[in-house]
Amino acid sequence: MDPFPVDIRYRAKLDYEVMQNNVMQWRFMQLARRDRRLPFGYRLRFFLRECNVPEPYNVRWKVKNRGHAARGKERGGLEVDGGNREKYENTNFEGDHYVEIYLIKNGVCVARDRAEVPIVVA
Questions:
Q1: How are beta strands 38-39 and 108-120 bridged, if at all?
Q2: What are the two backbone dihedrals, phi and then psi, of residue 111, each rounded to the nearest 5 degrees?
Q3: Would the pTM count as exceeding 0.70?
Q4: Which residues pair with 44 in a beta bridge?
Q5: Cβ atoms < 10 Å from Cβ of 39
Q6: Rounded Cα–Cα distance for residues 38 and 95 (Å)
Q7: Could you tell me which of 120, 77, 121 has the C-alpha nearest to residue 100?
Q8: Which domains does the chain have, with CATH numbers?
Q9: pLDDT for 68-118, tens place per residue?
Q10: Higher pLDDT among residues 65 and 21, named by residue
Q11: What is the pLDDT, as a whole number, of residue 84?
Q12: Which is deepest, 18, 33, 82, 96, by most CB within 10 Å?
């Protein structure tokens, strides 16, 4: 069940970068795009690449980690402390995860997008 009414009227495009020691790792970015597998132990910067929602709006994030390594540390709810247009996460758990961004305007979700984040231990 969505905590906000949903009426998708606008476009949002979520994207991410793979980083190590705050430096973007182009090789792993290309691997992630081609093979759809990210290395374990890296930092990810998620951001809103495109958006046509008129200001003002609020940003909320959902991070869903799945797999045996995430047991007991599961996540998946809509984060209450939204508002930031960037979100940093780490590739700590092997498995098929995802991150979603929700754009809320006047109490209604008017745009959203999702990025698949499959992580594998090399």
A1: parallel
A2: -160, 150
A3: yes
A4: 18, 89
A5: 17
A6: 10
A7: 77
A8: 12-120 (2.60.40)
A9: 666 666 666 666 665 688 888 888 777 788 899 999 999 999 999 998 887
A10: 65
A11: 80
A12: 18
